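quick one, three chains, predict together pls
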Amino acid sequence: MAGTSPGTRLASDIVGGLLLIGVAAVAHVALRDIDSGPTSSVGPAFMPNLVAGLIAAMGVLILILGLIPGGRRLEPWTLRGPILVLGAVVAFAATVRPLGLAVAGPLAMILAALADRETRPMEVMIFAAVMTGFCILLFKVALRLPIPLLPFILGY
Amino acid sequence: MALFFATGRALAPLVAMVCFVGLASAQAYPERIITMIVPFAAGGATDVTGRIMGDAMSKRLGQTIVVENVAGAGGATGSLRGKNSKPDGYTIGVGHMGTHAAAVSTNPKLPYDPRTDFDYLGIVNVTPNLLIVRKDFPADTLQAFTAYAKANGKGLKMAHNGLGSLSHLTCVLYFQLIEVDPTYVVYRGFGQTINDILSGAVDGTCDLVASVTGHVKGGSVKAFGVADEARSPVLPDVPTATEGGLPAFKVESWLGLYAPKATPAPILARLRQAVAESLADADVQKRFFDLGGSVPKPHQAGGDKMLEIIKADVVRWAEVVKKAGGIEATN
Amino acid sequence: MELLDNLYLGATVVFSANNLALCLIGCMVGTLIGVLPGVGPVATIAMLLPITFGIDPIGALIMLAGIYYGAQYGGSTTAILVNIPGEATAVVTTLDGHQMARNGRAGVALGIAAIGSFIAGTIATMVIAALAQPLTKFALLFRPADYFALMVFGLMLAVVLARGSVPKAIAMILIGVLLSTVGTDLETGDERLTFGWSEIADGIDFAVIAMGVIGFGEILRNLDAPEARVAVQAKIGRLLPSLADFRQSLAPILRGTGIGSILGLLPGNGAVLAPFATYTLEKKLAKDPSRFGTGAIEGVAGPESANNAGAQTAFIPLLTLGIPPNAVMALMVGAMTIHGIVPGPEILTKQPKLFWGMIVSMWIGNLMLLIINLPLIGIWVRLLRVPYRLMFPAIVLFCCIGIYSVNNNPADVYLTAAFGLVGFALIKLDFEPAPLLLGYVLGRLMEEKLRQALAISQGKMMTFIDHPVSATLLSMSLVVAFIVLLPTIRRRRERVFAE
């Protein structure tokens, strides 16, 4: 797995190790105002602080191992997928209560579909409408989940 | 699909108008499903009571009442959702002594004020609290337990269901009265608490009669100190706190329904009527009795009485919490 | 012979047209919601509670129980086909189950999961029928200190779960534990690691992390590497396990059943550990452990059986003690109380029809599930032929609805998107997500039990050593730690010295 992709020279373990150390540091700072408890009993900050410390230790270890030559290089990645798929999820979250499933459903599906270059617009539109209808029948009618359907018109 | 949206948009004002007209005349209410917000997880005492009421009320209102469990922050998340929902009678909610009275003192960040932010439909269920201890605990009466607590202090291990929970508040009140500071062991909910009482890892807890009936009747725990004037009809063999020499130990947990503030008067009246009729239903009374609670006594019934009781309980728990040196921020 | 009389009593209850129909409905609904990512038995049973108002209590409970163990069957389907674990117990199934699907053995994986679950369900039901009462004592043997030790042991097993680097697996477990501490502290009310965001004041839901890190992470990986996903769809392979597959799986199924039955008994939701423990055991027993993680059938058969066995024996603390061991059982308590049955030690003596009726219905239900699920395999496998460009937006929609329905809260959906990004980064940086999820599941319980144990012992650490259960578990943890760490350290040293 020692593939060297062009443009990425950083070993993935170095990045991973640094990220772990970063997470531990953020956690430690966020916990500074909370009591670790007296020695006889365990306070609310005891466990998270202990774990953050261990994470930092693991981060250092992984970082050192990453410095050994021959480790796996960081692969290149594109941002199109994450932005559109996760954007679709965020759009669903933002619209489901004010606009309802009938709007949020197709919106999320179409946005997500844009993440794939193979997507065909008409096909996705029709499929999104059909799937939303299916989900309404399934979740709203059959399972009776209290999810808003089209509140600005139907009131629920 | 584009067509569907176009028609939807064209129709929207029309439909909205119909809805508005519908709302204006109380006769038409309710014309669609009513949502009941339960601020705790499904299956708990609050949820079960809410569902029984929802079922009974929907028969009287001629509309389904759907329970929506919005758990979190000791009931504050769901109650906030209830406060912020549209006051059109299509959202009502469940609140109890914890969420709508004690929380004012136990949660400094409480995002609502139970004294001003809700229109109350009335208390629907009351259940006294009591003490239970493990089967082999060396005390059979409240007197003996009090004596044991005074002699052992921190050696007494009392469990409760989480910071600011009704079981916690009840324990705090009891131990304030007898001036003892026991060791508290905190659990996530009654299921975990009762487990460690049955296994003998902790000594006991304070909780609602409704929660512990099965275990008391089954003889797997000992119970005493029912915090009410009279013995609970569900547990007639368990003596009251007054019988145990501590008449000041009185906690009756109540649970009631609310609508968001500024719900139109005719709708509010219709809902209150449905509550009153449901509470008069023999089947509802029997269900509550089986659970260890009862419908409110006459001096507790109705929306106005509920607000009075809330105001009194807010003051009462504020004093208890203050005396305890603050039950730290429950949220 | 008393046992036979009791089972006969149970059979007379179940074999009415009404109750059989309710059992079938429960199993079908359970399978359906198990398959749907995010929509778990808790949300469904909560929504179905009002419907049961009109049914007699035994029928209602038979149906709700069917939903519960039906969901365990269905959950493995999603884990195998699209790598989304809906429940903590399905995390392990994603490891080898989804790899089998990628190798064109989705049908075999689904088949062995269904058959294993049926065998496990049958044995576990017999265990409940014959031994429910003596086993009750075992359930009460565990004090908080013992649960703490059990959780430590579980975390040690999580290291074995990993196929890659041990330090990375440990780091993932620790991140999971750290995530489990997010939220308001149970004892003091302090807000920990919430960064002032009130939506996570109650902690982060398991479904949010699992669906974000594993589910969305998987989608993002597939979009990033289009070659990989074509390979899945080209191969469909056989629909049912062959005799050789079955022979290979029988011993893991039986071992999984044993582990699951025992851990299911523990009221503190010990059942979540069962699939992990079984997976670890199978990996250690295997002649070639490197097959695990690339589609080993034992890695599906064992944990799936453990999962289902645990789901059945979890009824013992509920029915004999009135203690609900997990959220679903807490709902069953609610369902009972709605019907005027007060859970407690009296159920067995005062409601023998209910007790034995439920036990017999569980076996019937498992049989029904096998009959429902085997023909469905063909349909599920065919679903894999849907072009990925259509499949993934549909999965995104199902996940969104599922997560929203957990707490009816859009904030959970936002959080899942954030964890999707985490999952993508983990894949890119070569970290495995499964240990993170196990760390999350066990972490919260571990901390709570640690603090309860120390409160009870008044701060004395000896409490973990002076009781046989915790002492045994802690020493077993040490042994596992050595087994795991020694070869790694040796290998590293060799590598370092070779440089």
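Chain B has two domains: 22-126+253-323, 128-224.
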